[in-house]
Structures are given as structure tokens and as C-alpha cells.
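Page 42, continued from yesterday. The earlier attempt failed because a stray header line got pasted into the input along with the sequence. Redoing it now with the clean sequence only.
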Amino acid sequence: MPIKKAEDRVVVIDEYRELANRFVLVTIKLDDFAAIATSQGYVVAEAALAMFNDNIYSSITGTKSIIRVDISTIVLALICNEIDSREVIEGRIKKAILNASDKSQGVRLAFAVYPDDGDTSEKLLHRMKVTMPASWELNNNKIMSNGVNFNDEIKNGNILTYLQGVYSKEKDLQGVELLSRWKKDDVGVIPPSEFIEAILSQNATSSFISLLLNNAVDVFKELKARLKKEVFVAINLNPSTLMNGEVVKLFTEFASAYDVSFIEIELVETDDFDRLVGFHTIVQNLSTLGYKIAIDDFGSRYAWINSIVDSVDTLKLDRSLTQRISKGENNKKAALVVKSVVNMANELKLKVIAEGVEDSRDFDAMVDFGVTGLQGFFFGAPMSLNGFVDNYLFQKENQALLDEMLIASLPSFATKRH
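This time it went through. C-alpha cells are written below.
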């Protein structure tokens, strides 16, 4: 089920303003999507979401549209009776959604009624945003990491490692990126945007880097044993982290104990590398030790590749470029940027990995540009090691059937309207 652009919600709202004097918008958040993807694989999670979507569609009568707006969220637009109260409208929809969902699934709802809650798309979307339960904006809650000792969290096994694959145009696994998650009992699994800064600001950076490196070795060995493949394992680093002498020492000692040629250090493009005194030498030394070096989110900010070009092995295109090209947003300019990057990379003998590959349009577009690797939800969500292996083996064994199912289902994933 493809994810629509933010602008598509506005288009739907404007269409319904033309169609009816009164309608309701409902944001429906399936909280268990990530848990299903982690435990059972992305294919199963996508099937569950598609079934949930179809059940809602068949359970609610009337003129309606359903679009998917992010990985686990759909928005329903429904024309409603002009004389019905808000309580009647919400009660009817809640009952239908309850009947459509597995009772064990966590589902959250937010409503906006036109014109009661606003006569513009901006007002209606704002209404849904502010009325969704607080955990809807988990990524904006900066309080949860206060007072937490992350050395203890690391020691107690509460910093989890998820994997997301990097694939060739033939959909063969080339490598994996390790993505950290924080398991917090009273909240659930929390993305890195909520805790990485806290780790770096505490005296926990060395413990965290040590965890990443040891996890990289464990993942490499496990994938080699279970998939019979040797693939690279990437870890993300903010460049300024490498200015910490203890961190550099960790990398150096680790390289003396292990063959680290399979480890790729992704330097997130959030710093102007030239302003980090001695940074170029550190990166060159890491490359000499055997680590592969990648520039992550390339094209999003500084792109100071000229300063460390001799040490770089991989460029990872920022997901915004992928999305702009395949979704038609200023795609000519984005296409020129990608074409130039790929040509430059070929001349420099660098790999180019496209991030943000979320559907077949993204995949086809980036393959046409000649990128050497692809990464994104098209292949699978970040998941545990066991979930990743099971999902990979399932897809390899059933790829032809999955491709047939995808082609057959494409028309039904379009915006539905009756």
C-alpha cells in the first residue's frame, strides 16, 4: 500500500469540500505495525495493514476515500449527514474500526469534522494532529530521556539493535545497516532521535560505540552462518563523535583484534567536516585500519566530500532526493543532482546507495540512474536480527509469488472512492 505525499491529504480535503457540505477526516494509527514487522517481517506487517485497510473500507458505508500517509497511518475521509452530531459520527466510525481490527491491535484515532473544526485543510489537519493521543508525537517528546543513566541502559540490554538491508538492483542482499532503538518499559521501543543526544552528552559514548562494534561482529557472523553470505555491516556516527579520543582509541583497538574490513562507518552529514580540526587525519587513519567509510545523507547539507575523498568508499544519497525524483517534486533538478553524483562516483570508483526506497517507483527510478545499492521500506522495515533473517529467507524463497501479488494488488492500493 503506497505512502502518499503530505500534499495528497490536502488534495483529498479540497475534493471533499467540493463534494459535500459536511464530512469527517479520521487519522487512524496502527501502533502494532512496527512490532509485527520486527517479530514477523515486513511482508506480514504490510499484509496486516492492507487487510485492516480493506476491513475498514468495507465496514463503513457512504462516500469515502482512504490514503496511507506514513508507514503505519491511514487517513479516512467520509461524507456524513449534515444533521448528525459529532458524537454520533465518531461513535459510528469507532464501532466500524473496532469491528475491522484485531482486538489485540493497538489503534489510535483523531477526528476533524468539516466545517465544524475548520473550513481549510490547514485547520482540519491541525485539529487531527492536536487531538491524537500524546504518544502520536513521540519524536517531539524531549522529556523522556531526562534523568536516565544510559551506561546502565546499555549494560542492562535496553539499547537494541535493528537491521535494515541494502540491496542490489537484482534485489540481492549486499549489506545491512545497524539501527539503534531504546527499549523503555513504560513507552515501548523508541527511535534514536530521542536518545542519541542524551548518550553523547553523558559519559556513555564509549560504551555505546563498543556496543555498536561488538554488535557488528555478531551480526556479520550470524548472517554468514545463516544466510551463507558475507555482507558489509554499517554503523552510523556523527562526525564530531570521532573527535573524542576515547572513541578513536576504541576503533583502533578493535581493528587490532578483528578483521574490520566488513564494517562501514557512515558519517552522518550534519557537520561541516572542514571545521573539525584533525578530522581528515582521523578518517584516513580509520580507512588505513581497514574500516570502510561512507557519507550518509549525501546531498542534504554540507557534502564536503572533497576534504576526505581519498578515504571514502560509499556515498549514501539522502532519501529526499529519492522521493523528489520518483514522486515528481522538482524531479528534474533532483535527477540532475543524482545523475551528477553517480557519474562522479563512477569516476572516483565509489559505491552509491540510494536511501528512502519505499516502493517500486522509487526502486525503478534509482536503478535507472545506476546506483549500486538500494535501501528502504520497499525491502523491509528495520527489524531484529532474527526477524531480518526470517524475512530475507522468506522473500528469497517466495520472490516470484510476491512479485505476482504486488502486480495484482496495485490497482486496489490506489485511493478508493465510491
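Notes: The mean pLDDT is 80.
Reminder to self: strip header lines before submitting.
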